[in-house]
Amino acid sequence: MRILLVNPDTPVTFWSLKYALTFMGRKAVLPPLGLLTVAAMLPEHWEKKLVDLAGADLDDQDIRWADYVFIGGMHVQRASARSVIDRCHALGAKVVAGGPMATAAPEEFDDVDHLILNEAEVTLPPFLRDLAAGTPQHVYQSDRWADMHETPVPLWELVDVNLYAMLGVQYSRGCPFDCDFCDVTVLFGRQMRTKTTDDVVRELDRLYTLGWRREVFFVDDNFIGNRQKLKQEVLPAIIDWMEKHHYPFTFYTQTSINLADDDELMRLLGQAGFECVFIGIETVGDNGFLECHKLQNRNRDLIACVHKIQQAGIQVQGGFILGFDSDPPSIFDEMIEFIQRSGIATAMVGLLAAPSGTKLYERLAREGRLLGKSSGNNTDGYLNFVPKMDLDELIEGYCKVVGSLYRHDAYYERVWQFLRVYRPLHKANRGYGWRDVQTLVACLYRLGIRDAGRGQFWRLLFWGLRHPRDFHRVLTLAVLGYHFRRVFADFQAQRALDAAEVAVSTSCEV
Hints:
Elements: E1 2-7, H1 18-24, H2 33-41, E2 47-52, H3 60-65, E3 68-71, H4 78-90, E4 94-98, H5 100-104, E5 114-116, H6 120-133, E6 139-140, E7 166-169, E8 172-173, H7 184-188, E9 193-194, H8 197-209, E10 215-218, H9 227-244, E11 250-255, H10 263-272, E12 274-282, H11 286-292, H12 302-311, E13 315-322, H13 331-342, E14 347-351, H14 359-366, H15 391-405, H16 408-421, H17 434-450, H18 454-466, H19 471-509
Parallel strand pairs: 1-2, 1-3, 3-4, 4-5, 5-6, 7-10, 10-11, 11-12, 12-13, 13-14
Antiparallel strand pairs: 8-9
Helix pairs in contact: 1-19, 9-10, 13-15, 13-16, 16-19, 17-18, 18-19
């Protein structure tokens, strides 16, 4: 059996980092961890090939070669996935679809031959058994959660790891919280399920044998969902592994704000090599937290929490949302002020979205306010529901926020605010290669000469030269700022184009 696995392309978004990747000579932030894991679940003797459209073209001969084309991905990859599926149909290839994209909206993919929904550890084996018996069904789904210990090490040999900025490891699934706009609990439940410590070490060993000596992203939606197991078993094992291997990796992950409540956990994360966490802060007032049931963020000095994590040697990236029913007209200025004071350089500000299956989606459906499916990209200016605030006021306010935050002066000031608080603990033994030289040269030219913020860039660069341990970090922050400015400039340009088209259409109708 010959299997072609296809990872759809991702459009230019806040997290695609495509403009930043051009500095680094990389094609994508992360490899398709889900498809690589699925590939490891397939019979060993089957032939397998993976095409990641982030960095390669899909040829017709690849499709004709395959007995089955497996395709997965996230909501934001839907358009690319549809294009691939249509090509497969035109060439007579059989298609198997799964992952969050298909699980959340199976009706959109009903034309594929087989739908493997929910978690592949549960639904893929019965499909493989039926396929061997010659009786494969159209849909495989289950309400049973997978045992993470059954998840194999991804089949890394299917990709060129040097095409990516990071490699990924998944330790857990689920989240103990229940925010009404989030589909994590819809897809993976509220009960935390984790791999064993030996499983985690085995995956680190595999990345090490690949020759990887860079960033590793623990892709968990809430890495600290089971704090006791982390502190007692997993982090001590990672610390021991890192020491024995001379600190080859730096780790990134996602957590909740209650990380700031646990000094021991922050210390262990820092010792293990976790340099950065993404935290969903969402809004700046308790009314918003009550509305979306994000109770873990209530009754806190959130800026103090962020600074405490930064002082523990961990950079904080933050997610923020505009469009809650409870948002007052002052929310835009309040959010700008909060983010500037926090020192969160990477602040993803998006419009509220209602993913399928979430409590928010169901509530808006009952209220007759749904307009369609979420695009999966909450920074594209699209709302899939009717907001309480006037739509034009909301969009104008959103543009004001992102326009203010990613001006050169505002962005670099947040970087400085972060560096003033940050107290690194990690003993990273990060090597430098020709790609790093390429990145530096690109930065010197594009940010130090051509960019309007070149003065701020040179000031930051000279600081980094005086603090060599942080040089890579400050260079990365400068490159990220460039990407974010480009993304929001694209958004504003598209908005202007759409407005012009509407004006022309209206004029023609008149």
